[in-house]
Input
Amino acid sequence: MMIPCPHCGDRDVSEFRYGGDASKQRPAHGTGDLKAWHDYVFLFENPKGPHTEYWQHVLGCRRWFKLARNTATNEIGGVVS
Amino acid sequence: MSKHYSALALARHALDPGMPWPKAWESPEPKSSYDVVIVGGGGHGLATAYYLAKNHGITNVAVIERSYIGSGNVGRNTTLIRSNYMIGGNTAFFEHSLKLWEGLSHDLNFNCMVSQRGQIVLAISPVQMDVFARRGNIMRLNGIDAELLDAGEVRKLLPYLDYSKDARWPIHGAIMQPRAGTVRHDAVAWGYARAASALGVHIIENCEVTGFVINDGKVSGVETPRGRINAGKVGIAVAGHTSHVASMAGLKLPVESHILQAFVTEPIKPIVDHVVSWGAELFYLSQSDKGGLVFGGHIDGFNTYTQRGQFNRIQTVAECAVSLMPFISRLRLLRHWGGIQDMTPDGSPFICRTPVKNLYLNGGWCYQGFKATPASGWTYAHTIAHDQEHELVRDFALDRFEKGRELDEFGLGNWTYKQ
Amino acid sequence: MTRFRRLPQGGRIDRAKPVSARFDGKALGGFAGDTLASALLANDQVLIGRSFKYHRPRGLVAAGIEEPNGLFTLGEGATTEPNVAATMVDLVDGLVARTQNAWPSAGFDLMAVNSILSPLFQSGFYYKTFMGPTKGSWMFYEPFIREAAGLGKATGLPDPDRYDMRYAFCDVLVVGSGPAGLAAALTAGRSGARVVLADQDSDFGGSLLSGNDAGHEAWRIACIGELKSLPNAETCARTTVQGLYDGNLAVLVENRSHLRPDARKGEARMLLTQLRAKTIVMATGAIERPLVFSNNDRPGVMLASALRSYTNRFAVAPDKRAVIVTNNDTAYQAALDLATAGVAVTVADHRASVSADILSRAGAKGIAIFPGSGIFDVEGAKGVTRVKLGGAHAVTIECDAVGMAGGWSPVVHLSSHGGIKPKFDEAAAGFVPGGFPASHYGAGAMMGTYGLSAAIAEGSNAGASAASYAGFGKTRPVYAPEHVTDRSYAILPTWAPAYSAKGKAFVDFQSDVTIKDVKIAHQEGYRSVEHLKRYTTLGMGTDQGKTSNINALALMAEYRGITIPEAGTTTFRPPYAPLTMGAIAGRTVGAHFRPVRLSPLHDWHVKNGATFIDAGLWKRAWFYSWAGATPETAYVKEMELVRRGVGLADVSTLGKIDIQGPDAAEFLNRVYVNGFAKLPVGKVRYGVMLNDDGIVLDDGTTARISDNQFYMTTTTAQAGEVMSWLEYLLQCHWTDLNVQVASLTDEWAGMAVSGPKAREALQLAFPAEDLSNDALPYMGCKDFPFEGVTVRLLRMSFSGELAYEVHVAADYAISLWAHILKAAAPTGIKPYGLEALASLRIEKGHVAGLELDHRNTLDDLGLGKMAGKEKDYVGRALRFREDCQSPERWSLVGLELMEPDKKLRGGSILFAATDEIKGHGRGYITSVTWSTELNTFIALGLYKGGLGHEGEEIIAAFPLKNEQARLKIVSPHFIDKEGARLHA
Amino acid sequence: MLERRSALASAKPYVGSTLKIAERPGFTLTQVAGLSPDFETKLSTVVGPLPETVARAQVNDARTLFRLGPGQFWIVGPETDDAAAKLQGQCAVTPLNSSRVRVSLEGAPAREALSRLMPVDLHPSVFTPGGVALTGIHHTPVTVHCAAENAFDIYVMRTFAVTVWEAITDAARLFADRS
Output
């Protein structure tokens, strides 16, 4: 799989660190709501289809970015801003 | 026709080539209603149906499978069985599973080739030996076999490893479970299907469950392209696709679907007589009875439903194989394939009731689905029959993350994709 | 009798270059251009081995990669390579080959008794027996089954050869160099696109190499010549495209075994290329299918295309007469070519009638044709002697060879690797690609296009389209040679034996699967394609069912009374052909398996008697020879040095992070559980980080260098994780914070100076600096210049003694380290290693990797009080989950051994004195050391209820060695509880 | 005075006829990152024009500038470079002089050698002089700079310098039969 790093261009997946579902909204710093944190940390939509996710170009520019990918096909939709 | 399998039956059929064997399992048309519908005709679903009938006398059961039975991970794994678990909620469950494996061929009258050849886990540092010792001690304290091996003992058992000074990590010793081993994986699906079918269970292939019938928080059936099938109780056993199926019942789970690859070389004469695992990186290898070296490593590391693995992971695993066992370099990879597995944040599974009444969940197996098959079926059947979790799976609960009761067997932290 | 012979002329062999190989200990002669297979046949070695299960005599079936029978063991000793298809091995001087799976020899094999017992060995027999008499009986039978199974033998010796790997990129990859592939590559090449043409064969041309038409040959030569002249084209022979992966990654493996590469000279046996292609043209051809009939596995029964290939390409032909059995027109090309080579040919054609064109062309060559006929049976124990036909012409024919022409199976593997299922094409009577993604194209026989000019046209079009997709517009098409007439295919698909006797009729030669096995699978309900394959092992051999899958699928469809598409399709998984493991691993094996990480002080340690230990990727100084020869004795001396004098340890492996910006303090305040907002400049603070789940992620120290700059250290093990975590928070979530982070792990070396004489030692080393307790108190830090270099001195302690860490730019580390040792020599300073470092911290009760194992909370580690009550920090919410706060949790305790004659071991399980010693206990020992201070073994451990049980005597059990010991629960701070030493 | 010592001081030298692989010491490496919106303007006042993308280096007299990503740069200058001092206080300045070892590959087979090591297109029409790739060699991060047609500078992490050196030289030796 080739991952399009927004800064370095298309690179092999082996240069990246995966960071999981990026569609989840991280509770604001300071939120003490246990359920909000539980759902954020532990529950996943895990869709078979379009997925937005974090990747870090760890053997490259070290930038984290959001990527659209289809989990049913591994087709890359592109970087999401 | 010989319904019972034996050497004698085989001889009778050999002498009378015209005599047909009966079908291993029947494929009836689905009825409009069952006491229990199991969604998923994999190892766990079929085992559950078998134990529902055998242990609980519930025979009005249908197993509904989207494709052919055993099309999922029961036919895609590396066939290992073991019970080297050290976390309280895991040890007894997996040992129960190993005990069931030990009698399974007899129980099912189907030779699953349960080969207790022993698993050897190699340590690459003294610290790792301590970590292994903790595991081995817990096993011993729970009546499970475990032995520490020093480097010399390992060399006697596994003379083909790299003991040279070129080895990136030296072998410090190992922990061995002699009763661990391998099982012919497809036979498990077929054996359970045949035995369940003989007890009256309906096995319905090529029939996808497309929805649940839920009223007032209670499930009463499933929708399929072949019509609605009513059910007193419904059990989900579709590891790999648990999120998708559970979402049809409105559930959102601590599960992500990831691909785990597996590999087999061309068949060769016997050379690796144990299951060998390595502490440098996740890597495990055994030789099938057919002669191929079967091995695997980590998940690819990002969620996907494609059964196609990434080549960099294939390289990683080949590097492990050749570095640990340099003779493998000259052998050839015959096939590699992928299975989609449920990954949970703590690497442990679920066997439990769900917030929907009469709907039960079995999933989240991570790397350990195959070895768990008999105990999973056994305890899931109990859970469904009694509407109460079996005592062996009390910790495999959905709410454990909310409660802070993670079952982190390997100490990898809460990351589905790092387990 | 002679069955095959070398023709006096012709072929692509170089008769001026004789080659001598060894086969089963005897000389085997041939010529350059021969394969091992063609040389065997030329030497009339028709019987070449025994079948897998029944040990039936077998001969070659194919001339290419699909060969199911002709598997040999090549090489000797450590270079032994089992199961190699003779058709893919170039005959070279020095080649050594042996038959396998037969004893004592292929000609006389005692295991052939299996053939007599074969009714017992029908498919799936082993699922039905070997279960008794007792539960564990399989363990008795298994060794016999294992011994009987398997093909060749591996040696267990390390492979002496090397394997190379490279990355490559191109615009157009063309797979296969037959007519369609050549046309595609050249058309694409003419556009200026970067083209790679790969073919598994030793030469380019595909099916053209097996032909004998001078016009076609001229076209082939011209195409290759032009292609090779293009600077933008790369041609790769002996290069199999083994798999296609996401992102258009094609994996190519070039086999250089024929060059007999020498690893000592830096020569690789294989080169694996990871090729990223913008577009891919698949011109992978088609493989001929056998026909299923009684005794179709007799040596000498081959694919018709193989007979043609051996005759035309290798100049090896049946001695006198061959029978060809077919259900389509393409077999006549083989018949005509054999006849041209002087072989008498009879064709049995399943079809009721044959076209006039064929009748006239065949008639001209004296070929006898029996329409409406097929093979009833084949005779000849160790090679074909006679064929009996059935059907319209039930005649018996004496012959030397039989050619089977059951139609063609397009090679759709690569398109299938991409996840697209093949679809059945009625006209082609085979599976063709079920479609292509935008950047993929197919051409020629793999698309079911069998005519030469049609294939060339399709190839040229595909090449042009691919180039255009890759951004290269203009090209010139490649045209077929003149006067080419595309012959008809006219297949009448026949799957079940139409005219056959009752002898074994094989579907899969290599796995010894007969038509009866397919029937049994059907009877027993193993009817889906995958069940059929798994139950009968069909298609599971090294040939991956290249000749058998489609026949089996079609037979099952016939038994089920459904069409082939209804019966399903078959999935092809990579690799396309058996792929050498060494080639996949490449250079990344042995010492190069994983990178080695070295401290800037490494060279000093090497020269000064350090023994090293692996810690993750790092090689760390474990102990030094001045203290002893084994770790068990040395670390105790090194501990004593630190407790009584002063020692110097390398701590450069700690993760180090530069944190700068106006919001740096706020950032740290969020990631650490304890407060950092008010840390004064010139001070260091210990900090702990949690993950979002409230579990401890890491600990370390952070110094405030200036208002807006901090210097963080992490544990060695978690350095990478922490760095990524900080970047993640800053880049993805806390974008409002103005902070920059940079890794300093490689920039700064660190050395710990520890012991009561630490200040004295440092004062000697840095006489110009005021190091008094007032000037640099505990947890103080300062930067100062020393001989032109900045030295960062942090007064903190892992050992519990008066201690400092001296950090300096890594380039100067050895020089500074040596300076300290020399200047402070009067204090008796010496180096100490990791074992002592890790043991000293146990005495002080500092947690480390074995305690920070992603399972423990802040409270478990006795650090709960550190957490800020008024501020928020990562992991705070989930830290307070119900069970995370339970007093029953296992938490950190100190443990002191009460029985002086015993030893404590890490991994021991802890029990209360009155507990029965079974189950999971109440905790376990994480870290153990001999305490030089207490003169006994001490440990850190986790215990249910933790220090609530302080003072209790408990039991440590180590059943793996049948040991138990009595311990006392004590504070984990074994020494200097009040911290007097730290503040000294 | 304290002596500088290269991380490759005891690495086994590479002897080749067509390919030269050697350490190229004697540089100053400063990482700078922005803490204010006008960072790039301020930076270019001190060091001259900045590289526009990650993929191209900018050579300004004795200095070579690399862009690491948004608002982050490397300044590689001579040993006497005073850029770090000049920029102090204007942005986040992190001296990294010891943290990287510079290995140069020169000669006709240099591209082929590198193709063994990094998954980046090295075709002369694609990776041209001035080109930069932030990528990985032997699992470790590297910055590869195409200094001239067949000359490359590879900035390797110091603690991995020996292992990467061995990976590079091993790869180079292994295709010697083809060069």
In short: Chain C has a mean pLDDT of 95. The first helix of chain C runs from residue 36 to 42. Residues 671 and 874 of chain C are 5 Å apart (CA to CA). The domain at 4-127 of chain C is CATH 3.10.20.440 (Ubiquitin-like (UB roll)).
